[in-house]
Structures are given as structure tokens and as C-alpha cells.
Design goal:
- By secondary structure, this protein is mainly α.
- Helices cover 48% and strands 10% of the residues.
- The strands form three sheets. The chain has a three-stranded antiparallel beta sheet with strand order 1-7-6.
- A hairpin with a 2-residue loop joins β3 and β4.
- α5 packs across α6 and α7 crosses α12.
- Pfam families: RVT_1 (PF00078).
Amino acid sequence: MVVKAVHTGWSYGAVATLMQLDITGAFDAVVFTRLSHILWKKGYPMWIIRWIKSYINGRSAKLLFDRKESAAQELSAGVPKGSPASLILFLLYVATLYEELEAAGLPMMVVGFADDTNMLAVHPDAKRNCEVLEEAYQKFVGAVPQYYYRLRKHEASALCQVRTETIGLRAFLFQRRVPGEAIPHCDYGEKETAYHVTVRCTLYAAQRGRLQASLGTRMLRSRRDFESLLSDPDETPKFIQWFLRLGLLGMFSLARKLSGGEVAQQAPKSQTAEDIEQ
């Protein structure tokens, strides 16, 4: 298709200029929380979204090197390779990028296949082609969720960990057999995950109230509410900054100090969150 368009432009004496983009680690970077939000916004029924969740989740991988095999590790992101369904899901995952280009109404042709994008401008003036492609590139980059540009590096890193649940909380540390982590549960008997801390854990009820107040009318009552929050470019920065202030992730404490943020002390087992707030 691209080659034919180039030859057609040449036949009219025009200059054809092509810009090609490749998304690094494309299939491995698909996060289900964002994919489900995209599908929900596009009107897909919940039974399809639940089917896709069962298709993506619950996968594991092993490494085989020098005749030695590692233990199975759960995959928290990505879509299975080699399946036609995975290709379709990835195209839906990056659909917002192409929608931004279409809305711009630029005089060019866009052809995408999997993680490769071809942008072709045809015009008698090569300089005009370059101007069109430069504007298209800015639109393409601008379609990346804006909250990443409003976050400091350690906040963006923490956000990725929260979204994939590969995070330094008890449930994940216990699963990875980290020494000293004997149970995956918090002091209230439920698995300590980012979702549990944000929505359910009574220890952080007071702090959760402050987060809820900053979110306005948005409610945090279910996993769907939590996943929707993680995909909202306006509210995500408020959430991840609040989450880091809880002090649960000690590995980010130095980064927060250097960036001017205050690190809250984690609630001891003998105290409540309200005691700490006082």
C-alpha cells in the first residue's frame, strides 16, 4: 500500500516523504487496566472485557539457560505473542494514537501494522512534506498519556508498579519469596496489594478520605473504580503522589526527599492511621 502510494505520487511529479515509527517493546508493554478502560470507553460489553482479562491474565514464563530452568514467574503485563487476538488487542490499545492523527486532518497517509507506523506525505515541495510529518510526530507524541509528563521520574516508576502489581507490598514480596515476608496479608487479613490499600484497607481510612476529597465526585468503591482511576490522566498524578505519601514503599523515600516531598511514616502495628495523623 505504501509503495503503491509512493509510485502514484511520483507519476504526478510529486515528492514522497516517509516517516516510520516503531514502538519499543510493544506487545510486552500492554497493561490490562488501561486496555480495559479503552475498551470500556469504546462501548465494548463487559462480557468481552472479562473474556479478554481471562485471556491476558494468569500467564507465567520460565527462563531456560545452560540446561537450567528457572521457577515460573507470573507475567503482569503484555499480551501473548503468536495469536491473532493479541494483534487485534494491541491495535485497540494504541488506537488513541491513530485517532489523534486522524483528528488533526493532516494531508498524509497513515498505515499501521502491529507496532510499526508509516506516515507518508506527498507534495511537490519536499519542505512542505517535512513540515507535515513534523506536525504529525508532535501529535503522535502528544497522544501519550499526559500524566507521564506531569510526574517526576520516581512517580512514573511507582505508577507503572502499581498498575502491574509488581510492587513492594506484602502480596508481591511473598509471591517472590522475599526473605522475611512470611505472609501475603496485611494486619487485617487481606492480601496487601495497591488495590487493597487504596480501596479497602481500614488502616488508611483517614488518608483515603483526603484522596477522595481531592478526586471530587469520583468514587473509589470497587476494582473497576480503581482501574478507571489509574487510566485517568487528570486524576492519576494526585493518586500516585498520595500513594507515595503513605510511606509503604521505602525504596522511593530518598527520591521523594530529593524532590522535595515529605515521606510519611508507615503505620506501626500497634497504632492506627488516625493516631499517626494526629
